[in-house]
Amino acid sequence: MADNLLTDYVTGQKVPNVGAEANRQAIERFLVDNKGFKKQDIQVNVPIQMDIKGLAYRSHVDLVITLHGRKLMAIKCAPGSLGSREREIVSAARLLDACPIPLSLVSDGKSAILLDSASGKKVGEGMAAIPSRNELLSQFTEIVLPPLAGERREREKLIFRSYDSMNVNVIR
Fold first, then answer.
1. At 54, phi and psi to the nearest 5?
2. 101 vs 98: CA distance, rounded Å
3. Tens of pLDDT, residues 111-164
4. pLDDT tens per residue, range 7-54
5. What are the residues whose beta carbons fall under 8 Å from the beta carbon of 115, sequence distance 6 or more?
6. Helix H segments across 84-149?
7. In angstroms, what is the C-alpha Rg of the chain?
8. The model's pTM
9. CATH of 2-164, one of 1.10.260.40, 3.10.180.10, 3.90.1570.30, 3.90.226.10
């Protein structure tokens, strides 16, 4: 198993090289080396849990950018088709906190799709579309999205679980 371990760029911990782990490492490096984020701005494997019709569902969000105590961007690291993971990360961004996280991102470490979490609409494509630390600080720290109410929140939970349960080769 030691041969199948990587050192996580942000945490420094050994992690199994399964699924999209190599993609995540590429994104972590890009965020720090090219976009000016500090390692402490990036949370890795952020727990997400919810109750769906009386049953607990637990998972994690690959990366979350937090600046000045506010979660500003949720990131899904994915191999293959990025478009097929857009809805999953938007749902996660809407559910992770009481109020939705403003931006959602899906990336394979070479390309990226940036989404507005409130509308779910694509706002940028390619690695250059990922906002820098300074851009997030200047444009998004004052944005507070209203919490999702009742039935809408319940639908988002079902959407997230449906997409998330299809993830293979993940350590839970």
1. 85, 0
2. 9
3. 999 999 999 999 999 999 999 999 999 988 777 788 888 899 999 998 998 888
4. 999 999 999 888 788 899 999 999 999 999 999 999 999 999 999 888
5. 86, 89, 90, 103, 104, 105, 106, 121, 122, 123
6. 86-95, 133-139
7. 15
8. 0.90
9. 3.90.1570.30
